Amino acid sequence: MASVALSEAEKVYIVHGVQEDLRVDGRGCEDYRCVEVETDVVSNTSGSARVKLGHTDILVGVKAEMGTPKLERPNEGYLEFFVDCSANATPEFEGRGGDDLGTEIANTLYRIFNNKSSVDLKSLCISPREHCWVLYVDVLLLECGGNLFDAISIAVKAALFNTRIPRVRVLEDEEGSKDIELSDDPYDCIRLSVENVPCIVTLCKIGYRHVVDATLQEEACSLASLLVSVTSKGVVTCMRKVGKGSLDPESIFEMMETGKRMGKVLHTSLQSVLQKEESLGPKRQKVGFLG
Amino acid sequence: MALEMRLPVARKPLSESLGREAKKHLVVPGDTITTDTGFMRGHGTYMGEEKLIASVAGSVERVNKLICVKALKTRYNGEVGDIVVGRITERRRSAEDELAMRGFLQEGDLISAEVQAVFSDGAVSLHTRSLKYGKLGQGVLVQVSPSLVKRQKTHFHDLPCGASLILGNNGFIWIYPTSEHKDEDAGGFTANLEPVSLADREVISRLRNCIVSLVTQRIMLYDTSILYCYEASLPHQIKDILKPEIMEEIVIETRQRLLEQEG
User: Where do the Exosome complex component N-terminal domain residues begin and end (chain B) (predicted)?
Assistant: First the structure.
């Protein structure tokens, strides 16, 4: 993870502040920074989203391509994740420096989506054992300002909401050979249901309290963090501990409860923003990257 | 517990919100400023083929016969006598150094110092030969562009609201609680690690958010502008200051007060 150097006195200041529920930028322990979400920013993808959380900037693009289903799941399509930590984000990612973090984030994404209910994979099947939709989800880290996992999971959910997969029909010939026909109307597409797509809430343990949405400085003061993946109904799909320090089982329970609460709020806010954006229609003014 | 999600809003061009009539003359490196040879060249310009060419990207400033280009965003260029706040990233590894300095300064520590000399390659040499310089204790560091820190007589300010500032010329701004006892026998190399009171913390967090808002709106930073911004932000909660609409409101009020004070 990108890190900043801090002096001992600065760390002490941050830790004492968290314990008094007043962080450096005036937030409480359970406050997020202002989040900006925009979808459909990349035109040649099936779906895309950009999320800005303080100084963290994430761009996600989803491309739907046809492929063969996996052998053990012949009736389902699947998702492939790739995370690119670009050198734009921080000089530490120069060359191959960002690869470790990239694979860590991609593995976490695979884990949280590795259950039956997150995405309806059966709807991605075209013909069993032969053709299915494969969704390649590419995450690009533009700027790293702390709390990467939360921002990435919000962006992935928004991009999947925005994804439009072309409707196809399988035609069978007299000889039995199958042909796949794409619909003529470019707007005739299927959308994914993202109701059960989980979001990650990262809780960093600082001192004897935990905070959500830590900045880079706060992450440098925290020895252990808990990543909780929560669905909109408050169900925890996966949990992971990161960091060198240890966590008391009591605090793990407390942090998980906080994670569930924050997760539900995160989902309702994201849902309302996505609905609002959709209601503005195709004529909405896109801000994009030069706004 | 608060979480706010919103759709992004396109930024308005700055000149609209400022209400300036004359547009600034913006140049990029290589642009011709003027073909009139009667002008003296200032910073950011050079003479080539009978015309004045810009060497940095910025706005052209003209004072009588002197033309210079003020860069909008630069790397810090050291001048002798500048106050800087810096973080120790690397140190010389020699035996004397180990014995003497490691007790006082570690890697990652913040210090305030003055520029003693500038080398031809741009490197600066610093000194802390005064009791007011030295290691910095508890507080908050804000990193801004060096071009936004106004050059003043003094860069150490004790604000009436209860916190103190060091406005480093290199763009590193240090906000710390004003300590009650000012006797610095140790010469400022031992840090006080006792918890800072909640009231002081609120002042420091508010100042930090005010500085961040001023920087977003490209206002020059000096003690008066920061103080006016602090006073304008008092009706709002500290964490709300960073919301775009409240930030704009506070900065417009600050700008008005600064214009009234000048004119």
Answer: 26-63
B-chain residue closest to A290, CA distance: B10
Choose the closest CB to B3 out of A25, A36, A269: A269
Chain A interface includes B6 (CB < 8 A): yes
Q: Which residues contact B88 (CB under 8 A, 6 or more apart)?
A: B105, B106, B107, B108, B109, B110, B111
Q: Taking CB atoms and an 8 Å limit, are B2 and A261 in contact across chains?
A: no
pLDDT tens digits along A159-200:
999 999 988 888 887 776 778 888 878 788 889 999 999 999
| Every domain range in chain B assigned CATH 2.40.50.100 | 26-71
Instruction: Give φ, ψ of B184 to 5 degrees.
Output: -115, 70
Q: What superfamily in CATH does domain A10-279 come from?
A: GHMP Kinase, N-terminal domain (3.30.230.70)
Nearest residue of chain A to residue B212 (CA atoms): A25
CATH level 3 topology of B26-71? OB fold (Dihydrolipoamide Acetyltransferase, E2P) (2.40.50)
For chain A, how long is the longest CA-to-CA vector? 79
**pLDDT, tens digit, for every residue of A256-288?**
999 999 999 999 999 999 999 999 888 888 887
Every domain of chain A and the residues it spans: 10-279
User: Cβ(B44)–Cβ(B55) under 8 Å?
Assistant: yes
Answer whether A34 sits within 8 Å of B140, measured CB to CB: no
